[in-house]
Model the fold of this input.
Amino acid sequence: MTSMWKLLAPALLLVGLITVVIASDHPPAPAEFTYSENTSIITLDPQRISYTHDMRVSYCLFEGLLRWDNSTFVPRPAVASAWTVSDDGTTYTFHLRPDARWSNGDPVVAGDFVFAWRRAMLPDTACDYTALFFVIAGAEEFFDWRLEQLDQYSRRPSAERTEQAAADLWARTLERFDETVGLTAVDDHTLVVRLERPTAYFLDLVCFAIAQPVHPPTVERWASIDADTGRLLQRSDWTKPPRFVGNGPMVVTDWRFKRTFRMQRSETYRDQSAVGVESIAIVEIENPNTAVLAFQTGAVDWVTNADRVGYLADMLEQQRLGEHNDVHAFPTFGTYFWGFNCTDTLTGGRPNPFADARVRQAFALATNKRDITEKVRRLGEPPAGSLIPPGSIPGYTPPGGLPFDPARARALLEEAGWSDANGDGVPENSSGEPFPVVEMLCSTGSYHEDIALTLGAMWEAALGVRTRVVSKETKAYKDDQRRRDYMVSRGGWFGDYGDPLTFLNLSRTGDGNNDRGYSNPVFDAMLDRAELEPDPAQRFEILEHAERMIVEDECPILPLFQYVQFYLYDPDVLSGVSEHPRLVQYPYAMRINRAGAR
Amino acid sequence: MIRFLASRLAQTPLIVLAVYTVTFLLAWQLPGSAVINDEGRQPPPAVLDAMEARYNLDNSWVFYWQYLADATGVTAAADAIAGRERLGPVFDLGPSLRNEDWTVNEILADSLPVSIVLGLVAIAIALVIGVGAGVIGAIKPNSLADTLSLGVALVGISLPSFVVGTALLIIFPVWLGIGRVGGWGRFGDIILPAITLSLPFAAYIARLTRMGMIEALGSDYIRTARAKGLPERDVVLKHALKNAFLPVLSYLGPATAFAMTGSFVVEIVFKVPGVGQHFVAAVLNKDLFLIMGVVLVYSTMLVLFNLAVDACYAWVDPRIETG
Done:
């Protein structure tokens, strides 16, 4: 009998263990409003935010000085009740409300904004949007200075890298910031911001998620100065409940990695009438078909990302026939494009035919954008002539772009020195070398390969060139793009703020997002001139010329269509979804009416 | 026995270090940058350099040793000796580069128990099915029951788990309304994924048991047991099975470890919040800290599991020399 027990003992232990683990795992009650995202929430730290779905959450948990009205994109008072601008347009004074509160009851003061914006300007925090803060006077110099100081510090002999030395450097950094950066909390309720130069879109930046404040004592509790490197180390422990402190309409009450995310109405928020729901749950559903099922069975009220549903085109067709009314397509503040490598040589020192603007223009003219949206995508995206979606920025009219004109395309290619002399159908240059096989780089796992094949076929038919699709996993694709190891490559861009520069800076020499290596001093000078131009109409005219250069004359970028965002929701149940192209959503302000369900 | 355990325990760090080194060399070679959001904004070069410097990503040598020191608690010990204040855990596996608000410790603390429970339940199910089918097959070789159980075993080993998983999901929650799709947290949620995960193991165990039983039932001591008039049930379950179980036991060590680590597909199909999916995502995102952390923890577990099985082996069959 004992031997039997020997065998049974582990099994019994196991059953006991399993029971304990499962019994301790309680699912929460459903929230009033549940929506799904196709990826997990990355960060709640406003200064480090980079993804749209994180921003949606961020606008619920925090509140900046100003907040857009998300149907018109006019900045409205939020933590600041009023603001003034100096005559020269470089100094903004914000007056903060005395009744703004953090979720732990502390008042929101001007110093909290100084603290948060300073974090964003520190190389120690280094975030994707750090450069947007460089519109503030002295910010970029401060960033470079700190970087230099850290570099010098790391070169000191290790005996001189003590806790005291690191703390001294940090103290000097704070002093330097106060002396040189144009950001001052005059008192608890007055914040003065001095800009490098007049910046037409500054108030738009103030509304942006990254400019929201953080609660200094909460963040500092998880920060330390590293004696070895002199850097400020900031742990993210504070973003997890119950440690989380925010100043927005909601607070996060439950967050388990890839499992649950819950927000609850904040009792300390100043404007309770703006809050439409008591609680919000966000579920992560990676698989688009599962998301549709979850929506249809009522587990989810809003699917924020339905564009990867394989049968979306059929759903749209059914909707056209009046079978349902829950797929919503909104044109966005973003453009899908393919870009040409504009550098002189390709990897291995081969000459790059696309360094010649005429060749790029010829390829652009040989592209039938309507075929791509109507026959490949079939989702009703508007073909794009320009990089900036028409109508998305009030007062700005983008250029019309290039038409589909294969004859002109061939003529241009010949003008650039590529003509089919030997009659084999493939154009050659003057020394008889055929046009190199056009390598079209894209990432796997989405619709890009379909578009690449279609584009390739169009170019082969119109220009006689040969093409080859090179599709790689995202990291490898991005790496190739950054090293300019490609000829033509897929790209896309969503604007960050309501100004043409958010799109045009993409082609500025040396910009971090200029994957095409395009560099034109004339274009750069136009952008610089626009930045200094005080008259808005004049300014937009300069920018329109600059954009014409990009999409019609020089063609580093070939815009294909305006991105469309697809949502699933029942409009009788869910209200308050913004349809403005910038598609900034405030989930806390949405309303749920279960009685409306059909 | 103690000497055996001690020497095996002493080898563990060396094995783990070798795994860590090989993984590090491979992971460091992954293309692309670990700190940028590929579909988002690319910060200016100075910012990008600052980001990489923050995590020692600009120097593979420093990263390798620093991470090893942090993960094994050496850094924490040094801090304690120097009297420095410390915010992180003792065994600090670092931040997740992609999931910025989470540390690898937090991610593993949340998902590792799930994978362990799922793996153990699957092995328990596999044992019940496998041993049962093996014994039935061995008592009456080439009977209908034997053919049937072997057939099921063959199917269990050949069908990939995404097929079995999807079929189970369609049959139980969708057609019969038993259980639910894509849920985790209720008692019943573990059953379907565990069954799916258990089938290949059950099939293998069934074959091991059947072979062992057929051999045992033909041996002299079984004939003696029958001759002295023991009931057939006792002969089979107490005498034959005990010997026939040994090969199964030696298979259980690697099988349990594999069930706990290899449940990636099952996790995706059933939306189980285990470690497998993070590991795959970590490689795709070049999330170095998460890759290294998961590998360190898993390799340690695997080595310790095999050690435990060897110890069990000696316990069940005292004839086996362990010195």
